[in-house]
Amino acid sequence: MADIVIMPKLGFNMDEGKLVRWYKQEGDPVKKGEPLFSVETDKTAIDIEATRDGVLHKTLIEEGDAVPVTLPIAIVGDEGEDVAAVVADATKQLKAGLGGEVAESPAAAEEASKPELAKAPVEEKKSTKIGGRLKITPRARRVAKEHGLDLDELASVEGTGYDGGICEKDVLDYLASSKVRVSPVAKKMAEAHGISLDEIEGTGVHGKIMKKDVLAAIGAGADEVDLAAAGEMTADGKVVLEEVPYEGVRKIIGDRLSQSKFTAPHLYFTQKVNVEKLLDIRKQINAAQDHKVSVTDLIARAVTKTLQTYPDMNSALIGDKIQKYKHVNLGIAVAAPGGLIVPVVKQIDKMSVVEIAKETSVLFEKAREGKLQPAEYSGGTFTKSNLGMVGIENFTAIINPPEAGILSISSTKDEAVVVVDEDGNKSIAIKPMMNMTLTVDHRLIDGYLAAQFVTEVKRLLENPIELLI
């Protein structure tokens, strides 16, 4: 019997999922355990595996579409199986979940099960915009960009995708129609230079005249002034290179950090650390065993021990209650292709430095490949962010809600510092120095506690033998 595939709920706070990619097309065989589709969560894209063998009979949404969790998105069944009734039922559920009209009659249900109509409303053409943002699949957007269609022209394209969204076929049909003989940018550019369109041979779909065709007619002398005359300059004189939608992971990160910054009163504490002994002990550790330990791993150990010393820092404000945690789940920010992501080392307080190094190497690799599972980037109790590898000398990070604090680690630089010997004599010496800044939520953490915390981290990093105990 055919199964209805639903949009999975991959996190506690996940209410909606965006389908990034179908790994199978309608009619393709499916094997249990192989990737069927990919879903974008609040941090990364997750591959979802097929739960049975069979055939992908029907996809109800396209790549780029976002729907609430648990709604139907596909039908998988046996080869040759009649799935018309299942498709009709799934389409009905999907439309109801999206607030659309629901077909009640058998004739309407049969019509909804047809492949060309399962992704489009039956009664009326839906708007191609939602909340002022164009509903268009990534593939359709890419084709539109390649053929010079701007956002205003795209808004006039009739969408036949799910809930009126624009799919690739809609863009190609629009380009092929007789009314589209020249792109808007090319038309403005030709008018600005007094060139007749009849004199230009178009290289676009069905002979459409593109911007590059007009540039070729103008000659190699065309420059940014030409582009500005063609309408690519803003009212205040900026030439636009490209416009991309503010959506997906970037928007989710922005929304969460904005909420944190404007809700939690941030307070900052900076210390300068002499890491000479830390670098020396790292060299000794790596010479004594195979798995390499990084400075990041040693700092993680220092932060963990300090959180155990000051457990009030290992807390979060949840509603009207402050939760204090028994174990440290340390988040370590990593730059990934889709944006910043924070893998979480669970119960890191139970790990040695070498064990931390082994765990972080696995998590960091998965983060960079976009393969982290939700459990691997959620549940943090404190976060550490490091920009030292790119030479940043000082920065302050925004707290990852609902945690109480985040520690920013900057680069190590050789500096002249005052050194005091055992007899109290002072001298000037060159030492590797590192800045770190603690950001705390002042609703939870008082200044004195924060000062004690950052001072203890400094002490441990300057006496790193204690990190091995």
Give me the secondary-structure topology.
Elements: E1 3-6, E2 16-22, E3 29-30, E4 35-40, E5 45-49, E6 54-59, E7 66-68, E8 72-77, H1 84-97, H2 106-112, E9 129-130, E10 133-134, H3 138-146, H4 151-154, H5 168-176, H6 184-192, H7 211-218, H8 224-232, H9 248-263, E11 266-274, H10 276-288, H11 295-309, E12 315-318, E13 321-324, E14 330-332, E15 334-336, E16 339-341, E17 344-345, H12 353-368, E18 382-386, E19 405-420, E20 426-441, H13 447-462
Parallel strand pairs: 14-18, 18-19
Antiparallel strand pairs: 1-8, 2-4, 2-7, 3-6, 4-5, 6-8, 9-10, 11-20, 12-13, 14-17, 15-16, 19-20
Helix pairs in contact: 1-2, 3-5, 6-7, 6-8, 11-12, 11-13
Task: Please provide a written account of the structure.
The protein has 469 residues and is α+β, with helices and mostly antiparallel strands. It folds into 3 domains: 110 residues, OB fold (Dihydrolipoamide Acetyltransferase, E2P) (Beta Barrel); 104 residues, Irregular (Dihydrolipoamide Transferase), CATH 4.10.320; 221 residues, Chloramphenicol Acetyltransferase (2-Layer Sandwich), CATH 3.30.559.10. 31% of the residues lie in helices and 23% in strands. The protein contains 13 helices and 20 strands. A 6-stranded mixed sheet has the order 11-20-19-18-14-17. Strand 12 and strand 13 form a beta hairpin. It is globular, with a radius of gyration of 29 Å. 35% of the residues are buried.
Give the count of helical stretches: 13
Sum up the overall morphology in one term: globular
Cross-sheet strand order for the largest sheet? 11-20-19-18-14-17
Summed up, the domain count is 3
Main pleated sheet? 6 strands, mixed
Helix content: 25-40%
User: What's the Cα radius of gyration?
Assistant: 29 Å
Strand content: 15-25%
Number of strands: 20
The CATH C-level class name of the largest domain: Alpha Beta
Mean pLDDT: 83
Assigned CATH superfamily of the largest domain: Chloramphenicol acetyltransferase-like domain
**CATH fold-level name of the largest domain:** Chloramphenicol Acetyltransferase
What is the annotated CATH architecture of the largest domain? 2-Layer Sandwich
User: How far is the N terminus from the C terminus?
Assistant: 59 Å
Helical/strand content category: alpha+beta
- Uncertain residue ranges: 101-127, 220-230
